[in-house]
């Protein structure tokens, strides 16, 4: 293939030829590489606590409240701008990490707290709380396995325009609003039905209707007030405050390998500033999270310290992550099969290519 | 049903579990926070992941892959993505040794 033409678009659907190939190659629901951690240590790392998430959630709500107050109080003047910038990120970006961690059930020890924050954050991030719970489970089962993973961020050849537009959320919320409205009408695509059990479709429809009803009420309020202020508070932050969510989200897997069974090859750990880590709830330790998803966000730095010698060196900053990712993405647009392969430190066990090249039987054990 | 030795009682900490394989099948044997012993099938009903790497919290076992949960005393699925119950198995302690009762 000439180097100046784009690669042929892969089939990323969950019900097409790629899905069949992934299953045939043994890449679906496969065994993955894990760094070694003694059971006793892992038990300590997995322990759930309410304290950190209660503190962070209280800070989050106070931040949302104060910035919303400032935005409303100074509405119509330039003074409101910084308030909306803060509110936008707290709403339109921090919602993603709260949705994610509470969806895993690892944010709080107390189950109902996870559920309450999960539903609030799901609404803010405009995701159906039922559909996305199942979608994300699949993302962990089959991380960046083409034809299986519904949450692949870069589908090759990646569109540069759409990727850039993600930072302002316009295309994003249009697409996700259409999904919510479609789900509210009880319509689910074959892809959605591939990862959502039939028994959960009713719940997914119900929650989509709740979300759509709130957005409809916001629209009515905006018309009645003859103002966009209601949308500055509800929904709008997914446009003007979503940039941090995509800045951190794109570097999770961007430019790395597809169809492998070693998270060190398809996920990226990035060291970043404390503010971004708080907004992102430590998901910058992304290899660690995928290897051990039952470790809560507040324990990920400890997990990182324990296994870092078995992982590729982390990117030292968000900027460094983009510097390595962007050229790789551009090359993946034109070179089939290319991916950024990081050099492991001498202390690490080699990449387990054998896992995805010759997928073994699952130890011959039946359920 | 036949009783099979699993391990000495002290090999499992309270609020923890171990994996036990027998006859080509995998089982999970638990001790609750008070030390009582229970047993279920060893693979999660959602994605066939070994539960032995999961976390025991009170009466629940959390799957290490997707954080779904089961009540290991009854086998009931308690948290998505687990929706199908785990099969439970009888256990007993004889002279300090845990035994699991399995169908022949």
List the secondary-structure elements of chain B in sequence, H or E: EEEEEEEEEEE
Major beta sheet summary of chain B: 4 strands, antiparallel
Q: So what's the oligomer here? A: heterodimer
Category by helix and strand content of chain A: mainly alpha
Shape estimate of chain B: globular
Fold blueprint:
The complex is a heterodimer of chains A (367) and B (104).
Chain A: H1 17-24, H2 39-46, H3 51-73, H4 80-92, H5 94-104, H6 111-125, H7 131-141, H8 160-166, H9 170-184, H10 190-195, H11 201-225, H12 229-233, H13 237-240, H14 243-250, H15 263-266, H16 274-280, H17 286-291, H18 300-307, H19 318-332, H20 353-357
Helix pairs in contact in A: 3-4, 5-6, 9-11
Chain B: E1 2-8, E2 16-22, E3 25-31, E4 37-41, E5 55-57, E6 60-62, E7 69-71, E8 77-79, E9 88-89, E10 91-94, E11 97-102
Antiparallel strand pairs in B: 1-11, 2-3, 3-4, 4-9, 5-6, 6-7, 7-8, 10-11
Key traits:
heterodimer; A: 367 residues; mainly alpha; 20 helices; 0% strand; B: 104 residues; mainly beta; Rieske Iron-sulfur Protein; four-stranded antiparallel beta sheet; 48% strand; globular
Summarize the structure.
The complex is a heterodimer of chains A (367) and B (104). Chain A has helices spanning 17-24, 39-46, 51-73, 80-92, 94-104, 111-125, 131-141, 160-166, 170-184, 190-195, 201-225, 229-233, 237-240, 243-250, 263-266, 274-280, 286-291, 300-307, 318-332, 353-357. Chain A has 367 residues and is an all-alpha fold.
